[in-house]
Amino acid sequence: MDTPQLRVAVVGAGRWAVQSHIPGWQRDPRVEVVALAEVDEDALRSASERFGVARAVTDYRELLDDPDIDVIDVATGNAMHFEISMAAIQAGKHVLCEKPVNSDYRETRRAAELAASKGLKTKLGFTFRFAPAIQYAKHLIDTGWIGEPYMFNGYEQNSQWLDPHTPLRQVDADADPDVIAVSSIEGYGAPIIDIMHWWLDAPMTSVVGTMRNFVPERMVRDTGRMQRMNIDDGDMWIAEFENNRLGSIQSSYVTVGNFPGIEARIYGSEGAIIVRLVEEAGICQTIKVAKKDSVEFVEIEIPQEYFPEGGASTEPWPFLFYSNLVKDFATEILSGEPMNQGDFGQGALVQETINAFERSFRTRAWCDFPLEAPAGESDTERVA
Question: pLDDT of 291-317, one tens digit each?
Answer without folding.
Answer: 999 879 999 999 999 999 999 999 999
